[in-house]
Amino acid sequence: MGSVVVPAWQARTSAVATGIRLRVFEHVLANGEGYLSQACSAAEMLAMLYTRTLRLAELPEPIRPGPFTGTPGRANPGYQTGAVYHGPKAAELDRFIFSPAQYALALYATLIEVGRLAPDGLDRFNEDGGTVEMIGAEHSPGIETTTGSLAQALSQAAGIALARRMRGDSGLVWVLMSDGEFEEGQTWEALASAAFHGLDNLRAVVDVNGQQCDGLVTSVGNLDRLPERVRAFGASCDEVDGHDLDALDEAMRRPTPGRPHIVLCRTDPAHGVPLLREKAPLLHTLRFASPAEKARYQEAYEDMVREAPR
Amino acid sequence: MSVETVARPHVQNFIDWAADKPEVVVLSADLTNSSEVGRWRDTYPDRFFSMGMAEQHMLSFAGGLAREGYTPFIHTFAVFIYRRAYDQLAMSVAYPNLRVRMIGFLPGILTPGGVTHQAIEDVAILRATPNMTVLETGDATEVESVLDVAQAVNGPVYVRMLRGGVPRLFPRTDPMRLDRVRVLAEGTDVALITSGVETEEGLRAVHALRRRGVGVQHLHVSTHKPFDDPAILAALERTRAVVTAENHTVVGGLGSAIAERLADHGLGRKLVRVGLQDTYAHGASREHLMREYGLDAAGIVRAVERATGEQLGLSDEELAAEPMDTQPEVVVSAANADSL
């Protein structure tokens, strides 16, 4: 067997993915509970987006999250969305719309790993009066729209994509989604409409981790044959191993003229933290049942730190 | 002078108005001709987008367009905007305070389509929604001028729109203005505050009340939110009793807004609210429903009797034949027979 040469981008993307898991794991241990499985399943997808796929403006330096300054409205003209963490917008640059706001912790960790959010940004997670909200809000780092009521992001992104097409922008509109959102009717309305209007500048990556709040997706609803369903609605669809960087890269780059593109990423909600499997099927948030259990997770975390790529 | 009935005033007016506004686009959900934008679509095919019969998607999609500097004008029946797609309206449009214009046709009982088509609590719900501006057209002049009012608002706007044959009650030279009522009659006995098609009925009622010597301060409201015109408070202060009339449930709409103002300012006045009395309606003609639910001129006169405690001795037959206060005869156009 010959040695496998890993391209430089993969080494970097892989390191970012590991960094996302470590940061979220560290935070959950410090906090006593939190959204760990989402980081385990989506780390490679997020790392791919922010290191390889998205064309975003560079920031001069990571942004320190400011205080909450009020909701949007006529009385608050200075309201800024979390898009500032993506840098200035431009016609040739991409946009990133984050749909599952419950994945916010994993997104914040990603933004730190890629130098867009200050390293101590997670210290302000879920802090009263702050913007680094637990369920990401429109003013939270990296979040451009209000999406915590699930399945509204794809439609909003489709509207942005149509506007960009009318304007002649070359940049794409990317969306990160979770599989549970395919139980919402609006997702299918959006797919049908985006296909009808031929919005090929609209692309979504979907974390198909088989998990939702109540547990296994298969215990909550029916998402069988998801790729076939997506294709039947007129969109292009790839189904890949969501932890395989080569496969992700190929699927995310695929040109799909005249059609929106959906990349379904099959993932493992315990990827990188096998200990989590003991909690299955309830992986939505991790809570420690006892100090002894927490100690085992602490040990697993320290093992991960030792094995992480430098 | 007689009241002119204008046939489909929105159709050409919206086409002319949008000619020099390339940022204006239209979204429709399978009710294009029913929302009087079929000719608009044919005139500006590159700015018209069919969303499919998918209102939830349409509201969120509109938010996306508005974020990029376009001004989507959603055209569909009122009921499918706020009731079918309320979460999307609130989260994709209202919370981020986006410039989306929601043009809602067939408000209240103006449709024979029955309960599924009748927007009877839209003003209540959207008045309660932060960042919203809520407008209601009452005649052809307002149908024509509401576009400018809406477009000047830096945030989301919902419009209760009239279609078909629409009477011109107000001169073309006196357009709708944001948060400004029209004072249609002056008097100190009772304040009559009406909106939408109830203003037509109010004008008939005032004509009869005048003959019985009742002094009516009649206001026409076309902005439900914001609701800060000083003329409203002035009317409440100078009169002894108040009657409101709305093509809507009496819970949460114009009548409630007036009750709030009375309480806010510590004014003790008897208030009688004409409107749907916390009930759904059913499919029937406009005339039938207005009579059944007491939304017609006779219903308003009876409300004035309750508010003032004075019986005026006007029969229903007499009131049904009552002309509007502004002119000797009422023209009811055949084009006003609303269809789906």
Count of discrete alpha- or pi-helical segments spanning 4 or more residues of chain A: 9
Lateral arrangement of strands in the main beta sheet of chain B: 3-2-4-5-7-6-12
Assign a percent range to the helix content of chain B. 25-40%
Classification by helices and strands of chain B: alpha/beta
Strand content of chain A: 5-15%
Cα(first) to Cα(last) distance of chain A is: 26 Å
Largest sheet of chain B: 7 strands, mixed
Radius of gyration of chain A: 19 Å
Q: How many beta-strand runs of chain B?
A: 14
Shape of chain B: globular
Strand order of the largest sheet of chain A: 2-3-4-8-7
Largest sheet, strands/sense/barrel of chain A: 5 strands, parallel
Unreliable sequence segments of chain B: 327-340
Task: Assign an overall shape of chain A.
Answer: globular
Structural class of chain A: alpha/beta
Low-confidence stretches of chain A: none
Mean pLDDT of chain A: 95
- The Cα radius of gyration of chain B reads 19 Å
Describe what this molecule looks like in 3D:
- The complex is a heterodimer of chains A (310) and B (340).
- Chain A is built from 9 helices and 9 strands.
- By secondary structure, chain A is of the alpha/beta class.
- In chain A, the strands form 3 sheets. Chain A has a 5-stranded parallel β-sheet, with helices on both faces. In chain A, strands 1-9 form a two-stranded antiparallel ribbon. Chain A has a two-stranded antiparallel ribbon with strand order 5-6.
- The longest helix of chain A is centred in the N-terminal third of the chain and has 24 residues.
- The mean pLDDT of chain A is 95.
- The radius of gyration of chain B is 19 Å and the shape is globular.
- Chain B is built from 13 helices and 14 strands.
- The two termini of chain B are 32 Å apart.
- In chain B, helix 2 links the parallel strand 2 and strand 3.
- In chain B, the strands form 3 sheets. Chain B has a 7-stranded mixed β-sheet with strand order 3-2-4-5-7-6-12, with helices on both faces. In chain B, strands 9-11-10-13-14 form a 5-stranded mixed β-sheet, with helices on both faces.
- Helix content of chain B is 35%, strand content 21%.
- The interface between A and B is medium-sized, with 33 and 33 residues.
